[in-house]
Amino acid sequence: MKPINSYIDHTLLKSTASIDDITTLCNEAMKYYFFSVCVNGYYVPLAEELLRDSKVKICTVVGFPLGAMSTRAKLFEAEDAIGYGADEVDMVMNLGLLKSGKLNSVETDIASVKNTIGIKVLKVIIETCYLTSEEISTASKIVESAGADYVKTSTGFGPKGASLDLISEIKKNVSSNMKIKASGGIRDFITARAYIDLGVSRIGTSSGIAIFNGEKSLL
């Protein structure tokens, strides 16, 4: 297994996050060699400035946290973020359309964002806590069909986050080429390692330092 820090999107998406908070987040990401920071769109320019000479990637969110805006709005948000230096986009699926059976519209929403950001990485949050098992299956298949790079479990703002059973459910419905990001409630090394052992390619968490220190303590 690769070092645990290389799986972590060091995340701060609270509405109250200040400039100092984001600066600290970026400094921590450089210190601990996390894969990326994940910040709200407003802070992408600041993260780009702070991380310019490092290998830490910049991830941002689109349609967050509800996913219930127009595709046009999501495209503007994604294009704006990429223009300011974002390397990856985590967008929220339109769950209302999914539950309404408008599956082609859900896929078009995702594909449009992917086409806009091109070679940049797109992760699609399906917010599993609001979905039935059948809907998780359908959502996962749509994400892959639309050309996204990752299925992501959760925003972290719903009543529940990731679980190992959910990851297994997603894996059953996508090809081996599709990557999975687990997020929501992952706060220690043992838990993070269990997800990675199950095949998760990325961990979204605000507890990256605790996870890193947990791995170090076991060496």
Summarize the structure.
The longest helix has 15 residues, at 103-117.
Task: Tell me what the structure shows.
Keywords: Cytoplasm, Lyase, Schiff base. It catalyses: 2-deoxy-D-ribose 5-phosphate = D-glyceraldehyde 3-phosphate + acetaldehyde. 44% of the residues lie in helices and 17% in strands. With 219 residues, the chain is α/β, with parallel strands linked by helices. It has one domain (4-218): TIM Barrel (Alpha-Beta Barrel), CATH 3.20.20.70. An eight-stranded parallel β-barrel has the order 1-2-3-4-5-6-7-8, surrounded by seven helices. The radius of gyration is 16 Å and the shape is globular.
By CATH, the architecture is named Alpha-Beta Barrel
Mean pLDDT: 97
Helix content: 40-55%
Cα Rg: 16 Å
Task: Report the CATH C-level class.
Answer: Alpha Beta
Task: Please describe the biggest sheet, giving its number of strands, its sense, and whether it closes into a barrel.
Answer: 8 strands, parallel, barrel
Shape: globular
Order of helices and strands: EHEHEHEHHEHEHEHEH
The CATH topology name reads TIM Barrel
Report the strand count: 8
- Please give the domain count: 1
Low-confidence stretches: none
Order of adjacent strands in the largest pleated sheet: 1-2-3-4-5-6-7-8
Derived structural class = alpha/beta
Beta-strand percent range: 15-25%
Per CATH, the superfamily is Aldolase class I
State the end-to-end CA separation: 13 Å
